[in-house]
Amino acid sequence: MNEDTKVNISWLPQDRIDASSPENISTADSSLIPELIVNPWDIVLCTSGTLISCENAIVVLIIFHNPSLRAPMFLLIGSLALADLLAGIGLIVNFIFAYLLQSEVAKLVTVGLIAASFCASVCSLLAITVDRYLSLYYALTYNSERTTTFTYVMLIFLWGVSTCVGLLPIMGWNCLKDESTCSIIRPLTKNNTAALSVSFLLMFALMLQLYIQICKIVMRHAHQIALQHHFLATSHYVTTRKGVSTLAIILGTFAACWMPFTLYSLIADYTYPSIYTYATLLPATYNSVINPVIYAFRNQEIQKALWLICCGCIPPSVSQRARSPSDV
Asked: Is the full-model pTM beyond 0.90?
């Protein structure tokens, strides 16, 4: 079997095989080896995409079918779930196209969908962070019409930017004409991937700064309440510590999922072994698996809506539970 007929698995760079080696020639000519070999890493990514799609589809349906969940916070959570849902679908479509519809156009569309959805996911996380900061800093005026308008503006902006990012490959910003410019995510060029990575690092720095400010505000409010009610000092210390710990977990999880791939994409190119790309990209997909748990399923209102959909009732423990400080 000629080397040109080999399957080019997905949009990730494939390790090249030396066709001049006698072992490879005899292997290629062997009729015992199937023509289509599924890469185990692609199976893992497809499985991850399926889990992502199922989780986030539930969140999107809950928010879409409940008119009561129209506050700015829920709109941003819905945006995050929609972005992660598209990312999961993109991973599934990538697997299907890689093995059933092997064309350059399919690769361009697939990588555009995945890039746009993951970009929207990260931008939605930043928007949620901004919203949480404003809800604490402007606590008295947060629930105003101005806040809703600002939320819609953020959503339009982040989805506009993400759409533009997704259109880059199909509009000609790709490395199909010059393989030497390819990044670890083919057909994105090295310069495009580096620009996206640097943008991510800047957004992460902004999120870090905002979460530091949120921690300061929460601790200051708790300290003021404790001074006014001395007998509640211990309780407020515990809740404040839980809130700060939760924020640290949120930011730490985000960094742990995305930093390996971001830093690797800055130093690597298409000549690096594909196993490193898979190993750093997979944790990034896990962030979309964890997001519904952190931002949606822990929310009391979404829990109530989910219980109503599943069994038509709300358990007393859920309906009477006060909103947890860890939801800050």
From this structure: no
Given pLDDT bands bounded at 50, 70 and 90, which one contains residue 4? very low
- Distance (Å, whole) CA 327 – CA 299: 7
Range of the domain at 12: 3-327
Closest C-alpha among 37, 30, 29, 23 to residue 2: 29
User: What gap in Å lies between CA 241 and CA 236, rounded to an integer?
Assistant: 8
CB within 8 Å of 306: residues ≥ 6 apart: 58, 62, 297
Are the C-beta atoms of residues 206 and 123 closer than 8 Å to each other? no
Number of separate domains in the chain: 1
**What's the CATH code of the domain at 65?**
1.20.1070.10
Comparing CA positions, the residue from 193, 212, 200 lying closest to residue 287 is 200
pLDDT band at 243 (very low <50, low <70, confident <90, very high): low
Euclidean distance between CA atoms 315 and 201, whole angstroms? 42
